[in-house]
Amino acid sequence: MQERLNNLHAFMVVAREQSITRAAMALGMSQASLSQVISKMEQQLGLKLLNRTTRSINLTEAGEQFITLIGPALEDIQQGLSQIMDDKHKPSGTIRIVADDFAIQNVLWPKLQPFLQHYPKVHLELISDHGVVDVNKSPYDAAVVRGDLLAKDMETVQVSAPIALRLVASPRYLENNAVLKKPQDLLNHTCINLRSPTQGGVLVTWHFLHKKKEIKIHVNGQLTFSNMHQALDAAIAGYGLAYLPEQLVCTAVEQGHLHVLLPEYSVNLPPYFIYYPTRLQANAGFTKLLDNVAYQAVKT
Range of 6's domain? Predict the structure, then answer.
């Protein structure tokens, strides 16, 4: 089919240029090859389409009729094929990504907003889940987790820097409680716990670092959440101390709603990575998405 369309197009160019030489140059082929194409068409149709002499080329009556009847349809087909080939390389379709709440709101979403504006034919589904997902056995195309939770034998791209944690408390809480001097003092304070579905549903242990020595604290408090944003709200309201990503608390700290405590003891969690099956590398939309969410280290 493609060969016939190419031959029809070649005939249309010859008819327009009224010259085998000029038409061959426009088509990027030799004069001999173009002459063979026209002769083959005439043989297949059983019609003489061109009157050819050494000096000129003119359409026969059958050629004129051919142009009138076939020309517009051929142009529509050529435009349609060009559009299809153009769209083939344009990102489109639905991409489903699963990640925890913090990763969606603070890592992915800021980078995906300009991506969505630039590629309006791409539809994104961002699903909140704190578990580790096998994307080969799920309805999701990709998943985002911290580096220490990465699935094996998957393609990965880093999407964030290491996650710096900050111990924070509201001015209201600090007014009514003793000042902390070291992480061990947390045992005498009210803390806001997080329960981790990725670690069997246990309470998250608070890790600190002092002179390269790790300090683990199992804190207690009135509140436990599985969502960092809820823990942030509770800390701002004065319900206790929280140990959360710096990126999550920075605005509240800047506005004076929270104060950072014991920063010299804080640790960094591994960066987030997006992982996905190899087959997605052929998906133009997903490839562009990776370009947008990939972590770019700031050069100093």
Answer: 2-88
